[in-house]
Specification:
- By secondary structure, the protein is an alpha/beta fold.
- It is 46% helix and 15% strand.
- Strands 1, 2, 5, 6 and 7 form a 5-stranded mixed sheet that branches. It has a two-stranded antiparallel ribbon with strand order 3-4.
- A hairpin with a 4-residue loop joins strand 3 and strand 4.
- Helix 5 runs antiparallel to helix 6, helix 6 packs parallel to helix 7 and helix 7 crosses helix 9.
- The longest helix is centred in the middle third of the chain and has 14 residues.
Length: 188
């Protein structure tokens, strides 16, 4: 059952975020700890999706091996850091549960609204060092990174506060807008 009307539970979550600046203020990564990520890599000769190494998984593995060097805070980690009483769970658990519920109700594409909002808040507050692991594939045009994060990172008010090569972001954006698959961006 697909519908163009926004799911009521999603609407309530978005209203909650809009009405509670104290929650939104906790979402951005701490100074010098921001990391943006998208896509992944297939193992050589991969035949199944289980041989796909998502960027978030690669970042978690790097952090587990060397937490001093890879001291970033992912969006998932940030959203897990605090419990929202109104939801009765962490913001990450709420967003994940809501995404699953939207899928089950036949409106799974609406989950992108929530993840784009959370991701946008996370990168909008970025300060200092920003790291990136963008491993583009054929669906990069529909990624949260392309649709939200790169645009926010390129805003003048954000660029003034961060250390990340804007030329790499601009080149990425132009390439995707041309319908091509851009080169990976890996800044660690």
């Amino acid at each position: 059952m697909a519908t163009s009307k926004m799911d009521p539970e999603l609407t309530e979550t978005m209203k909650f975020l809009a009405q509670h600046p104290q929650v939104r203020m906790r979402i951005p990564a701490p100074r010098d700890k921001t990391v943006v990520y998208s896509g992944g890599l297939y193992s050589p000769g991969a035949a199944t999706v289980t041989q796909y190494h998502a960027a978030w998984r690669l970042l978690a593995q790097a952090k587990a091996r060397d937490p001093m060097q890879f001291d970033y805070i992912t969006l998932e980690e940030r959203l897990r850091q605090f419990h929202v009483v109104a939801f009765g769970e962490s913001l990450f658990d709420h967003a994940t549960r809501l995404s699953t519920a939207l899928e089950q109700r036949g409106v799974g594409t609406q989950a992108m609204f929530l993840w784009r909002a959370l991701s946008g808040i996370y990168v909008q507050g970025a300060q200092g060092k920003v790291r990136a692991m963008i491993l583009p594939g054929d669906r990069i045009g529909q990624s949260v990174f392309n649709l939200t994060e790169v645009k926010v990172l390129l805003r003048e008010d954000v660029l003034r506060k961060i250390s990340l090569d804007p030329a790499a972001l601009r080149d990425f954006r132009v390439t995707v807008q041309a319908g091509l698959v851009p080169a990976p961006i890996v800044v660690m």
